[in-house]
Design brief:
Strand content: under 5%
Order of helices and strands: HHHEHHHHHHHHEH
Distance between the termini: 101 Å
Structural class: mainly alpha
Radius of gyration: 25 Å
Largest sheet: 2 strands, antiparallel
Number of strands: 2
Length: about 350
């Protein structure tokens, strides 16, 4: 009988120990609670938003869609756009594993649907979790401002490519019913401008922000450019005041030009003194602190970034310098360029 009692007691102790062990936080991982209760970790999460920004370190530059440059290789790349084989009516994915490109390896940053909505989900998740975060108000405010800014950035780029798109503010789980439909172009514009308003209210001022991170000036600059695009004939056509398909363009309104004027005037008056054209034309490329730069994606001298810059030089350099001629200026561009 004693042996039986001892066995039961030992079993209970082992069970309690196992429960304690299983409830311990893994030492090699951070929990969601860790991330959103720590300013440094929340900032590290927000850093991932900056990977959304495209850069030119890809073989097929988006400039080759226009008459600015010529992409030396064919395939499902910028060539098919420049050759008018690829139109809004035939816009589609060319491969399953794309990162926004028309080619499986030669990325153009034109088809961003998949990567944009992936980013939007991360941003929505971040905004939801940050609402109840106990971190300091100043840190919380700035980080949420960045999230609103990047959501506006992504949607602004989406509707320029696709017209009206689904507006997603929730974080869908695998077992949720997904019923989102495309919003009209004008509804998307309203959503983007609302996000930019929140971004401007929360982001730090130009002289208070870390270099390369979003600030109020950058949000105002995006609003200035975006409202001009929205007011243009491409999306605000006086010859088609009530478009049959409100997904592809907005209803014509003179007020859209008034909004563009107000946004650009506000940027010039409030931010204009922060920027100027440098004395040397080359300053823009050679000086990271050039007064001409409103916002830039900066790269470091670490091995990863250095490898990317070397690869970009290989992509674009002419053949006689050992390059691949991936992005060559057209003759028209050379003639038009101010020498």
């Amino acid at each position: 009988m004693k042996k039986f009692i001892y066995i039961i007691t030992a079993g209970l102790l082992l069970s309690a120990c196992a429960e304690d062990f299983l409830e311990k936080q893994p030492l090699d991982k951070m929990s969601e609670a860790d991330v959103f209760t720590n300013a440094a970790l929340a900032t590290a999460y927000a850093n991932s938003f900056y990977t959304i920004l495209e850069d030119t370190f890809t073989e097929a530059n988006i400039g080759s869609i226009t008459d600015e440059s010529w992409y030396n290789y064919g395939g499902s790349s910028t060539r098919i756009v420049a050759s008018t084989f690829y139109t809004p009516d035939t816009f589609q994915y060319f491969n399953e594993s794309d990162n926004g490109g028309l080619h499986n390896t030669r990325i153009t940053h034109l088809n961003i649907w998949r990567s944009a909505y992936k980013g939007i989900r991360y941003i929505n998740d971040f905004l939801t979790k940050m609402e109840d975060s106990p971190i300091a108000d100043d840190d919380k405010k700035s980080l949420m401002g960045e999230a609103y800014f990047f959501r506006a950035w992504l949607y602004a780029n989406l509707i320029q490519r696709y017209g009206g798109v689904p507006i997603i503010k929730n974080v869908y789980q695998l077992d949720d019913e997904f019923k989102a439909t495309r919003a009209t172009f004008d509804d998307c514009v309203t959503f983007i401008l609302d996000d930019l308003k929140l971004a401007k209210e929360n982001l730090p001022a130009y002289d208070k922000a870390e270099k390369g991170r979003a600030n109020v000036d950058i949000a105002m600059a995006l609003e200035a450019r975006f409202t001009l695009i929205v007011a243009s004939e491409l999306f605000n056509d006086p010859n088609d005041p009530a478009p049959a398909n409100p997904l592809t363009k907005g209803a014509y309104s003179k007020d859209k030009w008034n909004k563009a004027l107000a946004a650009n005037k506000a940027f010039i008056e409030q931010c204009g003194s922060n920027y100027s054209l440098p004395a040397k034309y080359s300053d823009f490329w050679t000086n990271q602190n050039s007064t001409e730069i409103i916002w830039a994606k900066y790269f470091t001298n670490t091995s990863g970034d250095a490898a990317r810059t070397c690869k970009a030089q290989l992509y674009y350099a002419p053949a006689h310098l050992g390059g691949w001629r991936g992005c060559e200026p057209t003759e028209a561009m050379v003639i038009d360029y101010e020498m």
